[in-house]
Amino acid sequence: MRIAVLGGDGFCGWPAALRLSAIGHEVWIVDNLSRRKIDVDLEIESLTPIQPIGARLSAWREASGRNVRFTRLDVARNYHRLLGFLQEVKPDAVVHYAEQRSAPYSMRSSVEKRYTVENNVAATHNLLCAIVESGLDIHVVHLGTMGVYGYSGAGPIPEGYVRAKFEGFDGTWVEREILSPPDPGSVYHMTKTLDQLLFFFYNKNDRVKVTDLHQGVVWGTNTKECLASETLINRFDYDGEYGTVLNRFLVQAAIDHPLTVYGTGGQTRAFIHIRDSVECIRLAIENPPSDGERVRIFNQMTETHRVADLAKLVARIGGAKIGEVPNPRREAERNDLIVTNDGLKRLGLKPTTLEGGLLEEILEVARKYGDRIDRTRIVSRSYWNSERKNAVEGA
Ligand code: NAD
Ligand code: USQ
Questions:
Q1: Rounded-to-integer distance, Cα 30 and Cα 127, Å
Q2: Could you give the C-alpha distances from 80 to 5, 74, 85, 346, in angstroms and in order?
Q3: Spans of the chain below 70 pLDDT
Q4: Pocket lining: 299 vs ligand 2, CB cutoff 6 Å
Q5: Which of 115, 191, 192, 383 is catalytic?
Q6: Domain segments of the chain: what residues?
Q7: Helix, strand or coil, per DSSP, at residue 292
Q8: Is residue 104 within 8 Å of residue 328, measured between CB atoms?
Q9: Which one in 11, 87, 325, 334 has a CA-CA gap of 20 to 30 Å to 243?
Q10: What's the CA-to-centroid distance between 101 and ligand 2, angstroms?
Q11: In this structure, are residues 271 and 145 in contact, taking their beta carbons and an 8 Å threshold?
Q12: Phi, psi (deg, nearest 5) at residue 164
């Protein structure tokens, strides 16, 4: 297949682009390199020494004999270039990773809030609009988030839709299957709930084929393809704004920093290893929805864990102390989370779990690049509101 990977220079997109290329698909990466620019602005760097995109692509050519092409464009702002790209390349599928993905970054100030909404919503809308204008039959595989549902609720979280009963305009009771009610916990997560409505409309009106993958927190770093040469190494964020919880704890353990458990660590979240994340993209692309099918939604996660339990596990294997940090986020102190994830398993996903011994491997990566870690950037400086800011700074 011909596949465009929007956001293919990022943490999830880079290994996915390489895997799709390795198994014989023709791959184009589209990226505006905004994530690298944010690192410069925040004065942080990936734990791993990621190489410029040109060097990455040459190394891949050398390692695999395959060509991945690159187009630098801003999906949210360069509409006509995006349309021209689609008309020229005529991809069978577009994997859409090209959004600002950090919840803490999206809550830093009005600047980052507005950037996140403008970037993410415009990127998704431009893509849908350009597909319709091109007249091409392109399957959109979008990376959404488990956070669209909120993190608790009555019973297991379904895959996208719920059967609802509500009072209609004329007072009679109506029963209908609707998108699960959105309950975002940050400006970033809110953009993903807005994306869902865009997909709903363009699917209903223009029959655009969409698979929306509601992904949990991704952990791990490299895939088989990224390990083929050090130049192909994947991004690894550990800082307070972009690092995600399990990868952060492993880096903290590697440098003897107390693990930054927010509040009591009672938050339960859904997780997936980067290798499974990449495999899910392959499964979604190779099994597109049929003509006229509604937006297909899968929960892309393999297990749920409570933050306090993750901290205990990392403390045990990495010999770290557990710290307790006042929570900079406005979120429930404790929640339970049960998630349905049959869709991707039915397509063939074999979940990689925490018991698989992969934590040691990540600790090794963290130790190997330990001299690149800036301890001053571990603590998050993004607060959900002034009450949270005062609670953290007061402590
Ligand atoms: P990332 O920031 O590492 O990668 C995103 C890439 O998109 C970057 O290379 C960035 O430069 C690019 N980009 C952003 N806006 C763009 C635009 N307007 N035009 C062109 N390129 C643009 O993030 P990631 O961790 O790889 O996440 C990828 C996607 O997966 C995101 O949409 C995110 O919401 C979703 N996701 C990530 C996780 C996770 O734990 N990392 C979990 C669930 C969902
Ligand atoms: N947490 C800590 N200590 C830390 C960092 C985080 O206790 O040092 C807690 C947070 O309070 C939160 C949980 O760990 O309760 C998860 O936080 P996270 O930073 O790992 O993940 P989150 O902000 O939710 O965002 C990440 C990705 C995002 C994706 C989302 C999936 O950055 O792109 O959409 O995971 S989900 O969480 O399922 O919504």
A1: 12
A2: 18, 10, 8, 38
A3: none
A4: no
A5: 192
A6: 2-240+272-301+338-352
A7: coil
A8: yes
A9: 334
A10: 11
A11: no
A12: -120, 150
What CATH number belongs to 2-240+272-301+338-352?
Answer: 3.40.50.720
233: its two tokens: 């190494």
> What's the confidence (pLDDT) of residue 129?
98
219: which DSSP letter? E
Using an 8 Å Cβ cutoff, are 14 and 8 in contact?
yes
Nearest ligand, CA 219: 1
Distance 275 CA to ligand 2 centre (A): 19
- pLDDT reported for residue 341: 95
Considering Cα of 292, then 210, then 201, then 341, what sign does the dihedral take? positive
Rg over alpha carbons for the chain, rounded to the nearest Å, is 21
- Largest Cα span, the chain: 67
Which protein residues touch ligand 1 with a CB less than 6 Å away?
7, 9-13, 31-35, 74-76, 97-101, 119, 123, 143, 145, 215, 217-218, 235, 244
Q: Residue 263: what pLDDT?
A: 96
- Asked about 312 being catalytic, the answer comes back as no
Q: Is the CB of 191 under 6 A from ligand 2?
A: no
Active site residue 238: no
In terms of Cα–Cα distance, which of 126, 34, 30 is closest to 85? 30
* pTM (2 d.p.): 0.98
Tokens 């011994």 belong to which residue?
A: 357
Q: Which residue has the tokens 């791959």?
A: 27
